# Entry
Amino acid sequence: MTPADPDHAIRVRHVRKVFGAQTVLDDINLDVKRGETMVIMGGSGSGKSTLLRCVIGSHAINAGSIELLGKTITGMREEQLNEVRKRFGILFQSGALFNSMTIAQNVALPLREHTDLDPEIIDIQVKIKLELVGLREHADKFPAQISGGMKKRAGLARALALDPQILFYDEPSAGLDPVTSAQIDQLIVALSRQLGVTSVVVTHEMDSAFTIADRMAMLDKGRILAVESREWFESLRDLDDEAAASRSESERLIRQFLRGDADGPLTDRRSADGYEIDLFGPKTVGVTTTPSVESTRG
Ligand SMILES: Nc1ncnc2c1ncn2[C@@H]1O[C@H](COP(=O)(O)OP(=O)(O)OP(=O)(O)O)[C@@H](O)[C@H]1O
Ligand SMILES: [Mg+2]
# Structure
């Protein structure tokens, strides 16, 4: 076992995750330093959300190990895991608020469940968190009475309730207008700068990714293609076609993803392997003439 490492908030080692016959994560290695913002990118179905769920301990993994804040959570019992869970917050795609509770009650919930604080202190804590995300005036509204962007911010206030050291975000700006989505980005950056929170953000919104990331990881079909600095990804994105042509297949694939180009290795691959497998299934592809047919015909 690797010793606890004070420089890293998260260490993911050789993680494999299988659903039925499908290997969704294959030998994933990823370190996130304390205080940094790591953006995880990748196409739909590449395994981003699954990776997040494995890292927070809500999916068991089939191989490898995961360490959060110096503790190996792999194989931990539920009650130990719950102790670790108090030290990180999660912002789900939908905000995941309870509709029967006001915004303030939603934010207060983790404090009521996980602390012995007096109600007056909880009230103050809730106001501070709502102020942080710009929702103090909306504290007494119900989720149905606020917009999608406000729900996201309310979800963030709730994720912040216990002053987490790590925040996980799954598609924080999905479905938001560009201005609201830029506001969420600013919040993520502010939380990291002002509170020193370590952030892991899954997104495929490239503007957002380049605004918030210190480092970025690119997932493709359950494998990590690259974990590099934002600057590295920026310079790959900005290469002209001629310079890009001499790069490796995976770098060209990442470049296409970053630029959102319609043509490139990503789409060539899709059209090459998709249709035949769809028609005949993965096992028969490539076996176009069977030896028995050949031999009987001479
Ligand atoms: N609980 C599950 N049971 C079975 N298969 C699953 C489960 N969760 C995810 N998968 C499969 O794992 C693969 C990766 O899914 P995942 O949700 O991690 O992708 P993603 O990268 O988050 O995609 P998106 O960008 O669309 O959110 C998909 O093929 C999906 O069908
Ligand atoms: Mg997802």
